[in-house]
């Protein structure tokens, strides 16, 4: 009988949870699935870092990732982001990127963030590296959340569901 590692099980459970979340959103809001019309916006959001649920629970990774970041939403489908946080490897990371989320599923925006990260000791000795991370966002008036599905990369980066609460400070 094949034995499953806890990391593989956690990874599969995380992916199943994401799929279930999307399926529920689709079922509840089926009439509103589609593309978002690209229109200009001017909104500034601030966040205090992330909470990450790592798929590889046996690695003693840091799930609480406090920091400071900003997101400038310049259109209904795109925003620029930058910040600094205490990462899963217990080191400081910087990030810069652009969210592109052209799909709506009910009140959710679906897409990805493309950008760069630094500060992960096993990845390019802590230097900058590019990343493409699938994301789901929800915004309501002055509060929101970004959910990132961070993929694992060899033994250098560990996958997680990452939650980023945010607060709109300017419109």
Throw out a few tags for this protein:
8-stranded antiparallel barrel; 1 helix; globular; 13% helix; mainly beta; 171 residues
Write the layout of secondary structure elements.
Elements lengths: L5 H23 L5 E2 L4 E15 L9 E12 L2 E9 L5 E14 L2 E10 L11 E12 L2 E8 L9 E11 L1
Antiparallel strand pairs: 1-5, 2-3, 2-9, 3-4, 4-5, 5-6, 6-7, 7-8, 8-9
How many helical stretches? 1
State the secondary-structure class. Answer: mainly beta
Strand-residue proportion: over 45%
* End-to-end gap: 58 Å
Overall mean pLDDT: 88
Radius of gyration: 16 Å
| Biggest beta sheet summary | 8 strands, antiparallel, barrel
Oligomeric form of this entry? single chain
Uncertain stretches = none
Name the overall outline.
globular
């Amino acid at each position: 009988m094949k034995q499953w590692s806890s990391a593989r099980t956690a990874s599969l459970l995380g992916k199943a949870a994401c799929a279930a979340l999307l399926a529920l959103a689709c079922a509840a809001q089926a009439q509103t699935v589609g593309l978002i019309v690209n229109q200009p916006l001017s909104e500034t959001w601030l966040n205090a870092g992330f909470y990450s649920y790592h798929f590889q629970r046996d690695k003693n990774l840091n799930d609480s990732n406090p920091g400071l970041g900003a997101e400038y939403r310049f259109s209904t489908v795109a925003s620029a982001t930058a910040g600094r946080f205490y990462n899963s490897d217990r080191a400081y990371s910087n990030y810069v990127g652009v969210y592109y989320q052209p799909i709506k599923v009910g009140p959710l925006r679906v897409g990805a963030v493309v950008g760069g990260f630094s500060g992960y000791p096993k990845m390019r000795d802590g230097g900058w590296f590019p990343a493409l991370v699938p994301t789901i966002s929800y915004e309501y008036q002055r509060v929101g959340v970004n959910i990132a599905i961070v993929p694992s990369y060899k033994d250098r980066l560990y996958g997680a569901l990452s939650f980023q609460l945010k607060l709109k400070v300017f419109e």
